[in-house]
Amino acid sequence: MASWDSLTTRQLTAQREAAVRTQVLDAVAPFSPFWRSRLSALGRTAKDVASLSGLRELPAAGERDVCPDGNPSGAAGLVLQAKESGYALHADGPALRKALGRRLTKPDDYREIVEADTRPTSYVYAGQALRFPVASTRSDLDVVARTGARLWQVLGLSRADIVVSALPAASSALVQALSLAALGASSPLFAPGGQVEQVVSTLNMVDATVLVLPAVGGADLLGHLTDVGAALSSVTTVLVAGPPDPHERSAIADAMAGIRGARPVLLAVHVPDGHRLPWAECRESGGSTGLHTYPDLEVVETIDPETGEQAGQEGPYEVVLTQLGLRGTALLRWRTGDVTDAVEEEACRSCGRTVPRALGLHGGALVPQLMLRTGPQAADLRAIASALSGRPDVTDWRVVIGRSVRDGTDELLVHVLPPDGVEQADVAVAVARDLRLAAGMLPSQVIVSDDGRLPDGTGLSQRLLT
Fold first, then answer.
1. pLDDT tens, 238-286?
2. Residue-range definition of the domain harbouring residue 43
3. CATH number of the domain that residue 177 is part of
């Protein structure tokens, strides 16, 4: 069998079909309360979606589907809840044979094997409009660590590299993934936190070859490090956790010019919201061919960001993903909130890896963090779009995000076009009420068009404008 990053289309399809079948039939459907309930509500069985073609017909789901009332405790329904008897029914052959062999001679060993696959032991936080814990079992952490060794290959790193992470100390999937990646690749990793003094002290103590920066504020942080004379001459790779938008990337690249005696490569690394596996740009491309994924451990698809349905011919698109081989919190066709220009399946023209790659990815673009007059608010544009689409009292609509001319705060304006004969005030009140129910927020203003025209311009989609 070819390596994970050089499988033929036929090999990859066969491997994925088997992995989807195992994930749905032997893990998600029997042991996840949310997915079991969702399949029942959709009138589908586990066998209906236990294939690549069946999976594509499953409506995508996101955090508002799991926690419709905004209470993050609903995310517990995503966690697989298997007991010893269930494990015996659904575990894969080799693991089950090993466990049953131990059960006769050493019952405690059997229990440990079962718990390694079924009992959550580690948590990170995800969610954009609301925050909820994502659970991992011991076997999940092993998968993340082994995937981290792959990440090192894509980034062109080796066990000789020494990593200093200037990311804030946080219980996030990316922080955990980088720590486990260094463990899987046998590379030293120092994580002093995001304070300049702590990072400088660490850089002056070790000959770091890799520096990890946050996308937001990374350029300023790097500028401070160079200004105070931090030891950066040994750095060969700057990893940006984000991924950065073009402005942030350009700013960090400009700040890198201040590093004396070094010409490091700038690459991005990213964990989609709710996921645990880190995607990265390959060293050979310098970031030009997109974020490389892991086709045997996930299915990456795209959908229309407004409707949540199958994507059309033109992007940008929302990224949805299905995890394969991960237990703990399980995700099927999960709406990440990330927007991408395209997901390419062809071999990377720089490194030759035959893995899907997300091009022009904008992390969390569909759930922007706004500073409204009423305070900070995460605006879930997907929920807002769902509340506006298909309404009998609205024939067309636009959502415009911008800055207020009056005081510089962010504004979320909803423009609607009602059909003839509908009272404008009634439409405005009904739209505001439904947006509050669907997205947990009120818009800055609902503007009812009285001349048949709506705003036009660039944005995340045809109707979500910035």
1. 999 989 999 999 999 999 998 887 789 999 999 999 999 999 999 999 9
2. 9-122
3. 3.40.50.12780
